[in-house]
Design goal:
- With 351 residues, this protein is of the alpha/beta class.
- It folds into 2 domains: 151 residues, Glycogen Phosphorylase B (Rossmann fold); 179 residues, 3-Layer(aba) Sandwich (Rossmann fold).
- 33% of the residues lie in helices and 14% in strands.
- α2 runs parallel beside α6, α3 crosses α4 and α8 runs parallel beside α12.
- The longest helix is centred in the C-terminal third of the chain and has 14 residues.
- Keywords: Glycosyltransferase, Transferase.
- This is ADP-heptose:LPS heptosyltransferase.
- It comes from Psychroflexus salarius.
């Protein structure tokens, strides 16, 4: 008889969606002592689990070894070799369905998480009379898929508080002191421009937080690096880490922040998986679709004026803009963001 039950989770991308598996995985491990977990994901996203030694990663090399039907058959073979007791598809796209179908042929059962596509389509339909009723969160949807195997996954019992060690070589390059100063992260970019708060408005937030709050700026790609360097050079309380450190080092920095301010993007989920306070700016998307960071409250969500822009959200992923909504972000006042941040930081107990 096997002493431990082995659960395989399949979530190939994207970064924020993979990061949202972390609270669910931690809850499952805590509440099912005889459970071990392997996640199938892209190599880069496997780094999200380095602080969880009890979680193994199978790298999905979808651009090379595991490309196409033949490659996915090979990936299913690699998964079958660890003889999983449970398989859960947390992606529910063609590629993950094929992997599960191949595993079925090899004699392994599976469960699939339900995305709620119909409900999300209704929520993003361009209808001014639609009701913004919050859908089940992605974390809850992941947990529900695991519960279909009778596994215990009670997210209400899970508290996250993880601080990774920042290498001394990295600390030497940061002009702020994590032990003595309040340091927050700001990630002003997102996969789609329609989800971004304008940088000129964000600068007002930064000015209102100076001089007592130090800010690390996060981003990636040449254009973002250049923009954040310019922002950093213009404000003495800012330092851009974009393009300077590897992903593991950035995760260590994020885990030690006092707060993260992000768009509706992966950076918020990276911070939340460590238990860092996360505040998010929602422009053309909306937290009702279920993509809010783990355990985020409504007070920490900055939304446009829905009376002025009743068609929001325009989409689930922020990839849509319509006429008349180009300036929707301007209805979110910089002062509302900075004052909420100040209120939280003033109440935050010193370590």
């Amino acid at each position: 008889m096997k002493s431990r039950q082995h659960l395989v989770l399949i979530r190939l991308s994207a970064m924020g969606d993979v990061a949202m598996t972390v609270p669910v995985i931690k809850a499952a491990l805590q509440q099912n002592p005889n459970l071990k977990i392997t996640i199938v994901t892209k190599a880069f996203f496997g780094k999200l689990f380095l602080h969880l030694p009890e979680v193994n990663v199978i790298e999905a090399k979808v651009k090379t070894t595991h490309k196409g039907i033949k490659g996915l058959w090979q990936l299913s073979s690699e998964i079958s070799q660890i003889k999983p007791d449970y398989v859960v598809d947390l992606h529910n796209v063609l590629r993950s369905r094929l992997i599960c179908g191949f595993l079925k042929l090899r004699g392994f059962d599976y469960r699939r998480f339900r995305k709620g596509r119909k409900q999300k389509r209704a929520l993003t339909k361009l209808n001014s009379n639609k009701k913004l009723k919050a859908l089940k969160s992605t974390h809850e949807r992941y947990a529900s898929a695991l519960k279909r195997y009778k596994l215990k996954v009670d997210l209400s019992k899970l508290e996250l508080d993880v601080k990774l060690t920042i290498p001394s070589s990295i600390l030497q390059q940061i002009p702020f002191n994590f032990d003595e100063e309040i340091i927050i992260g700001v990630a002003p970019f997102a996969a789609h421009k329609a989800k971004q708060y304008p940088l000129n408005l964000l600068e007002k937030v930064i000015k209102e937080l100076a001089p007592h709050t130090k800010i690390l700026l996060f981003g990636g790609g040449e254009a973002e690096v250049n923009a954040l360097n310019q922002l950093s050079n213009s404000h003495h309380n800012c330092f851009s880490v974009a393009g300077k450190f590897n992903f593991e080092d950035e995760l260590a920095l994020i885990s030690n922040l006092d707060l993260m301010l992000s768009m509706d993007s992966g950076n918020g989920h990276l911070a939340a998986m460590f238990g860092v306070k996360v505040m998010t700016v929602w422009v053309t998307t909306h937290p009702a679709t279920g993509f809010a960071p783990y355990k985020q409250t409504k007070d920490d969500q900055f939304l446009p004026d829905l009376n002025q822009y009743p068609l929001l959200p325009l989409s689930v992923y922020g990839n849509k803009m319509i006429d008349g909504y180009e300036h929707v972000a301007e209805s979110i006042l910089p002062s509302s963001i900075s004052e909420r941040i100040k209120t939280f930081l003033n109440k935050k107990p010193s370590d």
